[in-house]
Each structure stands twice: as C-alpha cells, then as structure tokens.
Amino acid sequence: MSLTSAERGVNLVISITGDIDQHNTEELRVKIDRAFERSHCKHIIFDFSAVSFMDSSGIGLLIGRYKTASAKGGTVAIAGMTNELKRIYNISGLKKIIKSFDTLENAEDRAASKLRA
Amino acid sequence: MEITADKFDNKITITMRAKSQNESFARVAAAAFVAPYDPLLNDLTDIKTAVSEAVTNAIIHGYECNDGLVTLTFCSKDDEMLISVSDDGVGIEDIEKAREPMYTSKPEMERSGMGFTVMETFMDSVDVESAPGRGTTVIMSKKLANRAG
Ligand SMILES: Nc1ncnc2c1ncn2[C@@H]1O[C@H](COP(=O)(O)OP(=O)(O)OP(=O)(O)O)[C@@H](O)[C@H]1O
Ligand SMILES: [Mg+2]
Hints:
The complex is a heterodimer.
Chain A: E1 2-8, E2 11-20, H1 22-38, E3 43-54, H2 56-71, E4 76-79, H3 83-91, E5 99-101, H4 104-116
Helix pairs in contact in A: 1-2
Chain B: E1 10-17, H1 22-34, H2 41-62, E2 69-77, E3 80-87, H3 95-98, H4 115-122, E4 125-130, E5 136-143
Antiparallel strand pairs in B: 1-2, 2-3, 3-5, 4-5
C-alpha cells in the first residue's frame, strides 16, 4: 500500500495504491488527515484507480474523512473505482454521502463547481 | 460445527497468529483455494472480502488486538464453497445485535459496523456461533456462479 497527495486548487487529491484493510487504515488515516490539515483545500478526492481491494475498514476510513471535510464545509469524492471495488461501495451506504466518478477529471470538476455554486 | 472432511472434495485448514498483517494472507489463501473452480471475478472478490471481514473481526474484536490464534477452514463440494473463521477470543454476547447493519462496539476506532452486512450480502449464508468467553466461529457458504450462465 502507498499513498500520495497533491493539492489542486480547492481539491486535495489522495491517490492510494494496493489493498485497504484494517492493517493499514490507521497509517492512511494519519497521512490523509495531516495532508488535509496542512493544505488549503476544501475537498478531498480519492483516486482509487490503483486500489486493488477494500473491506469495511476502508468504509470506516472514508466516513471518517467525510466528517473531517464536512467540518470544513467541504465534500469527499472517489474516482476511478474498479467494478470489484464498486461492489462494496454500493452495499455500504457510502454513496449517500460520497459520490463516485469514473475519472479524476470529472470528480475534480464536480467538486470545484460545487464550491462556486 | 465440526466440518467433516469426508463430506467434501477438498479441505484446507490454516491457523495463523492474530496479526493484522495476516489479513492479506487470509485473502490470498481464500483466492488460491477457490481458483481451481474457475470462479467469476465477482465471486472471487466477494469471497476474499467476506474472509477479510471475519479475520479482521477475530483480530480486533475477538482478541482485542492481543495475541491469539485464528483458524480458517476452506471446504469445497463441487462448486459449493464453505469457509469457517474461528477464534478463541472474548466471544459475542448478543449475536443478533452484532449482525445489525451499522452496529459496532468500537465506534471510537472509526469502524462502520458493516462487516457482518458485507459477509451476509456477499455470501449465500452466514452462521455465527459464539458465547462470551467461548470464542467465535463464523461459517459462510457460497455457490459459485456458472461461467456459461
Ligand atoms: N470474532 C468476534 N469476536 C467478538 N466480537 C465480535 C467478533 N466479530 C464481531 N464481533 C462484534 O460484532 C460487532 C459487529 O461486527 P461488524 O464486523 O459488523 O462491525 P465492526 O467490526 O464493528 O465494524 P466494521 O466491520 O465495519 O469495521 C463488532 O463491533 C463486535 O462487537
Ligand atoms: Mg468488522
């Protein structure tokens, strides 16, 4: 598992590679929160195109980040999930609060336009 | 429940230390056991996810992140997979409540309480045998989808 973050205007783009499970969610949480705190971004966009697996530990992680971003008036979005990843996303109730986009570009546009609106 | 080997075509038992790094091993083992039956990618993902949920629960709830042993048993009969995950940990007092969507005894750990719901959705059946102080066994079954179908 590895994580990179990039500030792109109002969006903090977090790209994760590998599996997301209970073994690494704590490390991910610390890294994401630190990057978000240091940034001037309002929204968090997860690039999940290289995430190979996620279980309910990842759901908890995402809900937690949604709470963090909401407290700053921002949103969270996920981009590039494979069909396998979408299975857990669809049943977890996540989609009520975190939108999924096919591409990172679409997710960034949407988050930015929501801010302008 | 004792899974008797002679009722099945194949059976593999793995016992591992309750370490979170073994969660990925458990998933890979599940995938390797199912692979010869030529599963669809969806079925493979569902089984790996369900196993990951049960093993994670054994580690963080059963043993509360202390040392212990988690035993996985994989059985197959034709295209029917039976998987059990057991621990000798604290056990579950109210199984019905534990299985409710969004119920978690550890909200402070950012848990969503969706583990059992994931297992129930992704597998055909999920049975839980548990009692306080007596450990927990989760037995799950799934019939693999036919490729032609
Ligand atoms: N092996 C176990 N031993 C003891 N208690 C367990 C075990 N498995 C589950 N539980 C109890 O059942 C509850 C619900 O489990 P479930 O997997 O659905 O949610 P969770 O683990 O709390 O959160 P999530 O799986 O979404 O991270 C747990 O919070 C715990 O109290
Ligand atoms: Mg769980």
